[in-house]
Amino acid sequence: MSTCCTNEPHLVVIGGGSAAFAAALEAESRGATVTIVNDGLPMGGTCVNVGCVPSKFLLRAAEAHHQPEHHDFDGIDGRSRADVGRVFEQQRELVDQLRGAKYHEVLDGLERVTYCYTRARLLDDETVELEDGEFLEPDAVILATGASTATPNLEGIEEVDYLTNEMVFELEGAPDSLLVLGGGYVGLESAQTFARFGTDVTLVDHSRILSGESDELADGLAGYLRDEGIAIVEHADLAGVRSEEGGVYLSADIDGDSRTYRADEMLVATGRRPNTEDLGAESAGVDLDNRGFIEVDGHLQTSIEPIYGAGDVVGDPMYVYTAAHEGKLAARNALADESREVDYHPLPWVIFTDPQVAGVGYDLDEARSAGYAPEAT
After folding, report:
1. 124 Cβ contact partners less than 8 Å away, ≥ 6 residues apart
2. What is the pLDDT of residues 15-38, one digit of tens each?
3. Cβ contact 185:336 at 8 Å
4. What digits encode the pLDDT tens for the residues 135-151?
5. Closest Cα to residue 183, out of 152, 143, 154, 161?
6. Per DSSP, what are the bridge partners of residue 260?
7. What is d(CA 275, CA 15) in angstroms, rounded to the nearest whole number?
8. Are 333 and 312 in contact (CB under 8 A)?
């Protein structure tokens, strides 16, 4: 596999995660020459490096540690001791192994795909500029630069050394106490993982956990997590955060009552922002929405004909399997004579807490709005 780029007519994919690689594989199978240009996370993007792989590994490790002492059977005392630092080390070893097997080794077998670890930006609808001053003029471009943690607009946040999903897996072990900001997938899974490793966890959300799902699901999961000792603070009006005396202090207003929460570490999991900074999308004429995500139509085409978008950078739904599907479809549409639309309706989703929460298709309210008469079971 070559590691430098050519100026031959081909497909350029900007990004290095699941959407980017799915696009490259599809394009290569159709006889195209492909250049992947990436300067973000290591090869593999969010899922293998700072998302699905490390988080689910740690969730299951925490479950193995938790279960021996938490069951309903008399006479069984299966006390479990954990070297949490070694668990985190094994997690990093697994990430390295899977990055090699799922990405590096796959690329080595693709003769028409070149991978460049550098920065790329759009100059116009026909030209991609690389950081070293090289210019590419591909037949089509797929933007698959992903997303990162969205920092909340919170007084003092810039002066606090907080954690994100890109940092938390580099810890050497579990802190004694942890503040988690955000009650979505990342926040909930992280909260339970660290709580089961012995961390005193407080999760704070400005509305409620799982705000996009039904009250029944959210309240049910919150009950299980509280039973395990996780403090869940909902409908919090966050006032500010500061570092002091070796800890992080969060001030919030709860139903008119001013409160302060302290922990050794704070994990920010308050949503995602698109990686479109200095991408040149707007100067090339690519429309962005009011949050900066790349706007695409049902065929994953942007407002500029030869430029497509795929993965987290185009917004919700943000799942690894969605990103891979979008990347493959974007490459097909960019190269094929006929274009196909993406269909998200049958998309399944799951939160890998214990118990897990999952769904597919309509929920009850959506089904009723669509004219059906569903039965709750």
Report:
1. 283, 284, 285
2. 999 999 999 999 999 999 999 999
3. no
4. 999 999 999 999 999 99
5. 152
6. 251
7. 10
8. no
